[in-house]
Amino acid sequence: MKKNILILGGSRFIGYLMLSKLIKDGHNITIFNRQLSVPPAPFPKAITFFRGNRNHPQDLEHLFDQRYYDAIIDISGFTPDHVEPIIKKYSSRIGQYIFISTTSVFKTPPPNPMTEESPRIFLKNTYGGDKALTEDLLLDCKKVLPVTIFRPQAVIGPYEPNLEGLVFYRIINNFPILVRKNINVQINHLLVFDLIRAITLSIGNSKTFGKVYNIANDDKLNLIEFINLCGKICLITPIIKHEEMISKYKNINFIKKRRHVDFFAVWSEFDLVCNNSLVKKELKIKFTSIKESLSIIYSWLMKDVKRLNYFSLRGEQYILYNLSVPFYQQCVWKIINFFKVHINKFKQSLRRINFLRNTYHFFKHIKYKCRRL
Fold it and tell me: Coil, strand or helix: which one is 219?
């Protein structure tokens, strides 16, 4: 049945792919966020947008004014303060609250495997601690508001490939993949489309009311196995360099990192193996294997090879082979940095001027309206 669904967040990765799926399924979708992030692709035309900040009561009042949502999918809730105003004032206008939590709620190092009942951390002002506190806040309201909580583990997929994109980039370009000592740590991942399928199966499903689900696929593997699997998909043997094999990185100061891009392959320091038996039992979901998941990501990257350029680093030919940077190259980078800083300052000044100009015209317009009244 067609439902009215509100997504809190929704401009990037999980939210964007989820709203696209829900639109295809014929639901009415409303997106509420600050509209600060550029979506990875154009939004479907059928979406209703509310621009606002969930920390501002007037924005929430406008969002829920004379509206009823069969389900809320909360991606952007990180603390109890993000959620409490909604459930306290507007729970009568919500059919079901689906909260996207995280396996970071568990104490570290977590047990292997992690179950829904594993000990959690409740330390305020930490990512996992705040999520755990928010979980409990919602579960305390489950008698008056149907609540479903998912704890995704290591989500991977198109639009934000993170480690897998970095590994594919290095393999294809014949660059070494640098690893630290935590290569034997095991993790199981979750393809983003499996998470979306679980969420859609939970909408309006009374079996899921008041439940918490750990969610990850069935395959656990360590970093070396992960890299070698990417190599098999590329049909190229990866070059792996261990930290202890390299004397000293000479070029750290010249690295200009990007979001989710490092010169080391980032991997957990302890096992992150998630038990998924409950979600499989109650939602009858079958998970995509890690090999198929990585193949999907590889195909998406290769549809537009420019996507791989995101994972390049300045001077990586020196960094990855631990070579000294020529003096002339250091000078060029310093000159580039100098001009970039001043260009960014100039852009900020233009934004301030534009803001002041718009504010002036806004109040001038209000003044004109008041005179007419």
Answer: coil
